[in-house]
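ESCALATION

Customer reports they have been waiting on this structure for their group meeting. Please prioritize. Original submission:
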Amino acid sequence: MGVARQYTGTPGRIGNCRVAVTATLCSGVRAWLSGAAVYLPEEWLTDRARCKKARIPTTVVFQKKWELALGLLRDALAAGFEVAAVLADAGYGDVAAFRAALHAWHLVCAVGIASTTSVFRGTPQLQPPTRTDQAGRAASASCDAGAGRPADPGERARRRPAAERVAPGHAAPRHPQAPRRTPHDAGEDHGGNKG
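Update from on-call: job pushed to the front of the queue and completed.
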């Protein structure tokens, strides 16, 4: 059930496999599995004959991996577990809706992001574009040179921090009155990953 050509972290590549989303609770001394959900690719759930043969109820709907992860986290919180921090790889960290849910639940998190994601140190100081007499928007940058300046890749390579608090570039609005829409706003993955 759920076997398809998809990415799995075990071999670190795409293969014909089944994928499970898991949640693990750690106490500093012990770790235990608190929940797991089999990821069913969308092509599985749209093939009703296949679902019937695999005894998948008709009430099961497609969920992306990050949505399954939020469900497992919601279950752990509802069961009364205290969650001090959430750790997740870039398959989850690249999804703005996943990060937004963690933020809305006031959970500290450390999530991976793709190397192609633009980030800012701290919170960018955004300003509306300067009006010009010409049609279109001014060519000036919308960030100041202070705390909100784009991260310098050369400087980052020299310092090599283990972790740094950053704001993803795609999450920041371009203009205070007109937020920028990206594929992430629709809950899609970054980097071509499905689910």
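Sent to customer with the following note: Residues 1-62 form one domain.
Escalation resolved.
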